[in-house]
Every structure is written in C-alpha cells, then in structure tokens.
C-alpha cells in the first residue's frame, strides 16, 4: 500500500470506504471504495480529515478489509443467518427468521483473541426477529495478513459455526389456572389472558385453559387431561408460594413429573417451577408474571419453543443479572436481565 497526498490523488482509485460523521446529523459513507477521485472531492476529503489516502498495492498473502469481513462473516454464520455486503469494512449478520439466537461464547472469544480480528455480537440466547441485525465482522487495519483470517476460518470449520438462529417450533400448550378465589368466581381471572398472549407470540397451538380449585387431585387431573391431548407445555398459575392453599408444586410432584427446579435465582420469578412429565414441560408460574411485563418466564419460553431442555444448571447461571431493575419502561430483551 502506498500513501499519496489527496491533492495528488486525482484520477486514483480509493481502496476503502471513507466515513463521515457529523454528530447528531450524519454517519455514513462519504466516498465508496473504488471511487475515482475528482478535483472537486479534494476539499471534502480534507474536511473529513484525510490529507492522505492509500493506494492499494497488495503484498502476497495480504487480505483487504472488505474480503476479510466477508470471510469472517461466512465462517461464523450458521443456520438461518445471512450477511450483507461489506460497508466501511464491516459485514453485518442478519436473521432470516424470528427465533432464539445462539452464540458459542468460547469460540467467539478465541476468534476475537486473534490480533486485528473483531467480531461483535448480541449475547447468547437473545430473542430475535426476522431481519434483525445480529453481529458485525471486520478487521481493524485496512489490510490484514491472510493467515489471521485462515486461523479464524479453521476454528469455525472445527468447532463452528459461532452463530445460529433456532426458529421456534410449532408446539401445543395449555393453561391450568388454580385458586379458589378464581374458581369460585370471587375474582375474575387476569392470569390466563397474560399467559395466552405470551403463547401467541410463539404461535403455539392453544389447547385452552382449565380452571381448578385448590385441590391437588383436581390440579393433577387437569395436567393429565392436557397430556392426553398431546400438550408439549402446560402452564400452571396460582398457588406457587408458601401459603397453606399453595398446592401447585405439590400437585406437580404427585403426578410423578421430574422436577428440574422449584425456585430460581431470578426476580421477578423466584417461585418459578419447571418439571417434565414424560416429554411435556410443566411450568408453574408465580403471580408476579401477571403483574410484571418481564419475568423468568420470558427467559424460559423462547428457549423452550426453540426446542431446548433446561436443567438446574441453566437456572443457577441466571443469578448474575437475574435481578430486574423494574425500569419505568421495560425494554427487555434489550437489557442485562438473565444474560
Ligand atoms: N411469605 C411469603 N410470601 C410470598 C412469597 C414468599 O416466598 N414468602 N413469595 C412471593 C412471590 S415471589 C410471589 S411471585 C407470590 C407468588 O404468589 P402465587 O403465585 O402463589 O400466587 P397466589 O398466592 O395464588 O396469588 C397471589 C395473588 O394473585 C392473585 N391471583 C392469583 N391467580 C389469579 C388469577 N388467575 N387471576 C387474578 N388474580 C389472581 C391472588 O388472588 C392473590 O392476590 O407470592 C409472594 N408471597
Ligand atoms: O416469584 Mo415472585 O418474583 O419473585 O414476585
């Protein structure tokens, strides 16, 4: 690569995109790679701080930033991910589907440990929409030694890809609402509609809602009835805490289900229960989920609908970041909660 003063660069070809930033007004490409510099460009180039430009004279084995960005994007992208052509030396990865974004953290760490390589990503287990931007790949200098890119490619070949999006599966779900106050008509059910809305987001096949009094046998019967209908998921509301009438965890245990956890290091959602009765997931959802927009349930549901089976360890890890700040305006998943 050769350095040329801009005044002497008329007629020469730019070898990288050139960025202009005016705070609050503009950030983007002022000149594209490949642009042939004209007399009238000189003043603008000087204004964005370029007194010199590079002229591309590749050494054997050198890789230009655009090619490096493409190769890193290609190596790191897995299922349901596409990448855009490079802009200002960076490729942006995007999701082709609504789903759960998975990141192999250790592999990403190793790739970013290669000098000059930079791959920035959303965190693991992020819920993403179709077309959402996921990550950006680039190298820091304009030209990088090819062996650095080859090293990243080899790592991905062996252990990769780093990123994938798991689309949500079409699963069957029902709701069991317990509590004498609702069953006997003392108060109106407010829990069912909140749970139904969450299931709708995942386009679950809805099997309906069953109401039970505070009676273990009847709660157990409602669970079994949904499993006979082929439920993949049964959400249970009411009776999840410590009062004498709180019978839901006991009723779940009595069905013979394998209890993964009753209680999680997450607030709101401390009294959450996850169990598996055969292949059917039973989720005991504490009352806080009726009140707070985001609770542990919003962390668990995407993983469940993406086909994951959660174990105790998954919940233990949620403690750091499991304390919700209950912001006046909740912006989850754009926050630290349960990351
Ligand atoms: N001494 C303690 N008290 C509480 C604890 C605790 O550990 N020790 N845990 C708290 C936490 S955390 C939560 S969350 C709630 C959990 O409550 P439950 O899920 O057991 O809910 P209930 O006791 O059945 O009801 C609480 C509240 O919500 C109303 N409710 C229940 N279901 C419905 C429904 N379908 N529609 C409308 N309203 C409903 C119910 O009438 C009560 O007012 O416990 C804390 N307490
Ligand atoms: O299960 Mo309760 O969060 O912590 O409100």
UniProtKB/TrEMBL annotation:
Could you state one GO cellular component term attached to this entry?
A: cytosol
Which reactions is this enzyme annotated as catalysing? adenylyl-molybdopterin + molybdate = Mo-molybdopterin + AMP + H(+)
User: SUPFAM superfamilies attached here?
Assistant: Molybdenum cofactor biosynthesis proteins (SSF53218)
Q: What is its EC number?
A: 2.10.1.1
Q: Which CDD domains match?
A: MoeA_like
State the Gene3D superfamilies in the record.
MoaB/Mog-like domain
Q: Which InterPro entries match?
A: MoaB/Mog-like_dom_sf, MoaB/Mog_dom, MoeA-like
Q: Which residues form the MoaB/Mog domain?
A: 174-306
Q: List the keywords (alphabetical).
A: Magnesium, Metal-binding, Molybdenum, Molybdenum cofactor biosynthesis, Transferase
User: Alphabetically, which GO biological process terms does the record hold?
Assistant: Mo-molybdopterin cofactor biosynthetic process
Cofactor dependency: Mg(2+)
Look up the domain of life of the source: Bacteria
GO molecular function: any one?
metal ion binding
Q: What is its pathway?
A: Cofactor biosynthesis; molybdopterin biosynthesis
Q: Which family does it belong to?
A: Belongs to the MoeA family.
Q: What does this protein do?
A: Catalyzes the insertion of molybdate into adenylated molybdopterin with the concomitant release of AMP.
PANTHER family, sorted: MOLYBDOPTERIN BIOSYNTHESIS PROTEIN, MOLYBDOPTERIN MOLYBDENUMTRANSFERASE
Q: What is this protein called?
A: Molybdopterin molybdenumtransferase
Source organism (scientific name): Formimonas warabiya
Q: Provide the organism lineage as a comma list.
A: Bacteria, Bacillati, Bacillota, Clostridia, Eubacteriales
């Amino acid at each position: 690569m050769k350095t040329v003063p801009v005044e002497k660069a008329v007629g020469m070809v730019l070898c990288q995109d050139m960025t202009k930033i005016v705070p609050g007004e503009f950030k983007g490409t002022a000149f594209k790679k490949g642009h042939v510099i004209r007399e009238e460009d000189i003043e603008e180039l000087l204004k964005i701080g370029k007194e010199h430009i590079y002229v591309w004279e590749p050494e054997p084995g050198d890789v230009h930033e655009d090619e490096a960005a493409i190769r890193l994007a290609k190596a790191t992208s897995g299922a349901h991910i596409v990448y855009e052509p490079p802009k200002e030396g960076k490729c942006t990865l995007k999701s082709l589907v609504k789903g759960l974004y998975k990141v192999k953290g250790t592999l990403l760490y190793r790739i970013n440990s290669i000098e000059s390589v930079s791959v920035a990503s959303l965190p693991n287990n992020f819920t993403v929409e179709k077309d959402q931007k996921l990550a950006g790949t680039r190298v820091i200098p304009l030209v990088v030694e090819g062996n650095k890119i080859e090293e990243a490619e080899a790592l991905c070949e062996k252990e990769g890809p780093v990123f994938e999006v798991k689309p949500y599966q079409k699963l069957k779900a029902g709701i069991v609402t317990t509590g004498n106050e609702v069953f006997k008509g003392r108060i109106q059910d407010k829990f069912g509609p909140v749970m139904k809305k969450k299931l709708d987001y995942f386009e679950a096949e809805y099997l309906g809602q069953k109401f039970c009094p505070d009676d273990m046998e009847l709660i157990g019967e409602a669970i079994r009835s949904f499993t006979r209908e082929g439920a993949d998921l049964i959400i249970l509301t009411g009776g999840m805490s410590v009062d004498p009438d709180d019978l839901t965890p006991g009723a779940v245990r009595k069905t013979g289900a394998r209890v993964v956890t009753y209680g999680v290091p997450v607030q709101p959602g401390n009294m959450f229960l996850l169990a598996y009765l055969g292949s059917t997931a039973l989720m005991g959802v504490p009352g806080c989920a009726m009140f707070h927009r985001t609770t542990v349930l919003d962390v668990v549901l995407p993983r469940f609908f993406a086909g994951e089976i959660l174990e105790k360890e998954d919940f233990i890890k949620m403690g750091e970041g499991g304390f919700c700040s209950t912001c006046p305006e909740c912006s989850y998943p754009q926050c630290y909660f349960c990351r």
